[in-house]
Amino acid sequence: MKRREFIAGLGGTAVAWPLAAQAQKPMPVIGFLNSAAHERYTAFVTTFLQGLKEAGYIDGQNVKIEYRWAEGQYDRLPALVADLVQQRVTVLAATSTSAALAAKAAKLTIPVVFTTSGDPVKIGLIDNLNRPSGNITGATQLNVEMGPKRLELLHELLPTATIMALLVNPTNPIAETLSRDMRAAARSLGLQLHVLDASTERDLDTVFATLIQLGVSGLVIASADGFFNSRVEQLAALTVQHAVQTIYQNRDFAAAGGLMSYGGNNKESYRTAGIYTGRILKGEKPEDLPVQQVTKIEMIVNLKTAKALGVNIPLTLLGRADEVIE
């Protein structure tokens, strides 16, 4: 006979329940939302799962994860947020700036853990880094704030150039802020800056043809954008094909053949998001988890691409590079 535990019911009636049935509880569900396409984010998802495991949770064993990807179409994010809410997720991991802003706009009552390339206070996600109020916390790489520094590095590489360009996705909710900050940086360096828009494959071809017509010497690709992050190989190839010296935020761009990258470690912020998600599942409150800032900034230079473009990288710049691809 199988062992059973008896619990007194109403009126003193004994009701028998199998122990296994009592112990079986539904697994908590995590919603994972990102504005990009999943193909380019496998390594980041792996890092998120790593952090989740450090906090004691493994997908399929004691937690379930529902993934939603906007495929670079930002207008899909509100519906994806609503869909995850209908799935009764316990925590929402909004792992891109636009996804986090969509979650914030939805005024959710469930906890939200974000990753963002921007300053979360400046873009309105939270009001305090050390003690975020409400139901939202996370990690930032501060890559948006490094946009002016990327322009400065490009100017150091091309000291005689006077015309630069910034490539932004106009559908990105922080595109206007990015453009404003970069225009101010260009003025301080005495540079003329053209801001060009791209949100589709066709736009990219048009942009690079326009760069030549405008006489642009250097290009900064705006950070914090799922559309661009999902197309680093294509962007790298276009910059070489059209001989435009270009800098972007992440290492993948330089590794794919782009000239330079400069930015924070995105993977570390995903690991932090995984850890925080696990801690919240265990009962901690978002307001008690200070927003973490990635402190390691990496500059990668692709020397092979520089030679192909006929660009001489100054030794002062090479000496500061964290990695040189030859």
Topology:
Elements: E1 4-8, E2 14-18, H1 19-23, E3 29-34, H2 42-54, E4 64-69, H3 77-86, E5 91-94, H4 97-105, E6 112-116, E7 136-140, H5 147-157, E8 163-168, H6 175-188, E9 192-197, H7 201-214, E10 218-221, H8 226-229, H9 232-241, E11 245-248, H10 251-255, E12 260-264, H11 266-281, E13 292-293, E14 297-302, H12 303-309, H13 315-318, E15 323-325
Parallel strand pairs: 3-4, 3-5, 5-6, 6-7, 7-13, 8-9, 8-10, 10-11, 11-12, 14-15
Antiparallel strand pairs: 1-2, 12-14
Helix pairs in contact: 2-11, 5-6
Structural descriptors:
single chain, 326 residues, alpha/beta, Rossmann fold, 2 domains, seven-stranded mixed sheet, 37% helix, elongated, disordered N terminus
Structure explained in plain terms:
The protein is α/β, with parallel strands linked by helices. The protein folds into two domains: 144 residues, Rossmann fold (3-Layer(aba) Sandwich); 149 residues, 3-Layer(aba) Sandwich (Rossmann fold), CATH 3.40.50. 37% of the residues lie in helices and 22% in strands. It contains 13 helices and 15 strands. The strands form three sheets. It has a seven-stranded mixed beta sheet, with helices on both faces. β5, α4 and β6 form a beta-alpha-beta unit.
Q: Summarize this, please?
A:
With 326 residues, this protein is α/β, with parallel strands linked by helices.
**What level of helicity do the residues show?**
25-40%
CATH topology of the largest domain: Rossmann fold
| Euclidean distance between termini CA atoms | 71 Å
**Kindly state the mean pLDDT as a whole number?**
89
Sheet with most strands: strand arrangement: 9-8-10-11-12-14-15
Q: How do the SSEs run, as a string of H and E? A: EEHEHEHEHEEHEHEHEHHEHEHEEHHE
